Amino acid sequence: MSAGEEQAIIKQYQPLIRALIPYEQQNRLLEGINKFSKRLPSAVRKVVKEEVVRLTSLTDAPADNSAFAHFPVMKFKHFGIQMRLDKVGAKILKSETSLYQDRYTVGVFESVMNSDFYQNQIKKDQFKKIVDAFNIESQSFTDIDFGDDIAIRPNFTVSSPEFEKGRHCSVSAFSHLGMVVETKRPPNVTTGDTITFTLPEVAGLTKEPTDIAFNLQAVKYNKHLGKYESFFVFPDDIEPEFLTNLRRYVKVTAYRQPLQRDLEIERAMQELERDRILENSPWLPVYLSAHKKSLKPTIALFTKANVEHNKAEKLLSSLQDKPFFDALAKELLKYNEAFVFHGTIKIKNATVKITATHRQLVEMGQLNALLYLLAKNDDFICSHCRLDVVTRTDKQKAFAIHDIASKEFEQLDNISHVLYCKDVSGYIGNLTLSAKCSFKPLSSDLKASGDNWHIDYVMEEDLDRRNETRYVIDKAASIKIGLLSSLEARVADLSASGMRLIVAPNSELQKEIRVSVPDLKIKNEKYKVVHFEPASGVIRLCLAEAGRKTKVSANVDTIVEENTAYFKVRDIARIQRLTHRFIWELAVRHMPSLAVLCVMNRFTFDRLKTVYQSDNSDDLFPFSRTQNIIPLHGFFADKGQAKPKSLILEAMFKESIQQHLVVHCVRKSDNRLVFIRERDFLYSKLRTQIKEQLDEGKIQLSSTDVTAIRCHGAITPLTKKRLAQLSKLDKAMYDKLETMQAGYTHCIFITNMSALHHDLVIDNLIAKRELKEPDSVPA
Asked: With b meaning 16 or more CB within 10 Å and e meaning fewer, what string describes 609-623?
């Protein structure tokens, strides 16, 4: 075998040679060769063995890398041998010496003196710096589990003749482990003393004042509260039944009362950040309840951000068709994700409204054809949907936190799932065909049935522009439609200058009608029809004559004052406020995509504060989380740079772009990632090459949407509620957290859309290049 052939073998099997070095150091080279290279030809095995032996032989040659060093060279001795290396060379020397079992061998010398090895080490160091710059700590949308450390700060006091002369003392922490009592001065007690405290009558814990013995463990000064805290623990002979009741009491009241100070601060910070993510999220939550063997939509939550980002009414209308929603629910229950196409197409001089998921069209072999036709019309919308289960525990927490009686809100208690929707038409609206396709007859399953679900919605108080109190009532009414004829109706709700009536479906009405409601002392009053739905028979009215408002309003006010208790629970504003808080509480625990909270800072990377991610999220693919550290370099870092830099982040913070698609191809042969620029993926011939690789099964496509939204304000609808408990414990920390809320600037949402983009590429759909692309869009 020639020298050239031997060098080629050594180069080809370099990973194997380095893997065998530890075996040679332990005199187990033959065992290693048999383990790693059973099928290698004998000639190759001989060359590999000789190379391993050569590399592990000792040497005393001095090393000097000054010829290609990037940093100042240092002189020092290594095992008594003179070295002239820069800091990178010294690092290589240290790592290679460790590989060779702390011996200076030929292999160590050649690695230190190898320019290519040196350059690879520099690239590794640079890449590590880039990765570290984009590593962010993560939090979960799930409530923090404090485990055995959970302790509440109860609203009762305790007393003992043996402690502080029988004064009633506040309890700063109470749990199954013991109790912490606050005093202004250090108590006159000794560690180890047994003191019997009287617990008052507490609903759910004690039926009458009860004496409980505690052992004093320690007395400490709390500088935050400015008080002394005496730590007591339960004695060993405490009744097990009392401890069981105490555990249950703490668990039940943990969301109704503040926790111990440090725990309450931690809980408040998580709640404030989750609220901020929901407040600025483009996802629109729609809540579902069980219906026969499927699901039905009942109510949606509108926020400033999701109303701005989505065409909210059109998005909800795409989910209302009953037969389609049954099919969508089955798909969501199976995959937890779906993409819904909704719009109209023209067939034989007729316009047909269709709604379908992308999986339905793929199964029919009509994804490219129908999507091409749908995208031609302005009413087309594509929604990204994700489903999550709402557990019984989630609802109990929401009812407890906002002190809502579940029996008064049966509709809320029946919620079983939450469906998040987001308009992603921007990636679909300009698609065209890159190859011919066949247009098959349109399936009747895709056509709108006309039988729709009614989806209610609630919104933040800032979005609700009503300036009068409305009450839910059920009273008989009549509408005069002729000289001697009238139409029966029911009053559904009432305000000072308007009402909502329900009449028989498909009734005929004029623009102005006269209404009589005997029980409300309204007789032949003239109202203007603001909105009328013939199919459902719902009419919304307002007074036609402004001058009559004073008299009608006085009548309504009189009726309300005479029946205050009756109308209080029927106040629509109160009902909507409690409903809004309840479904908000469910939404913050089930957010569908990874979210990055950003704060004010002069350095771009330091603006990335915290990442929130659900436990079963795959939005990080093709990257993965390490413990509580989330790597975001694959989505934000500029490629091919020696230092950490992100044009995407800079553009998003300057608000020159709001949305960006990050694309990677995972090569299955070696799991190597290949980054694809957004414009190349969407517009260029590279898309055809990617399709060929996908058809052959050589790669896996990963496409991730990155959307940045500027925070709408310093406070969210529930900020005061979140800080209310903390204000009772530590006013200084309350003020600090309240001030911190103004420091948040953006929320960035990272969403995996690989399922859709994979099928679009496979079906020869390519985006039409825009006439002029913005210069600020990163490559």
From this structure: bbbbbbeebebbebb
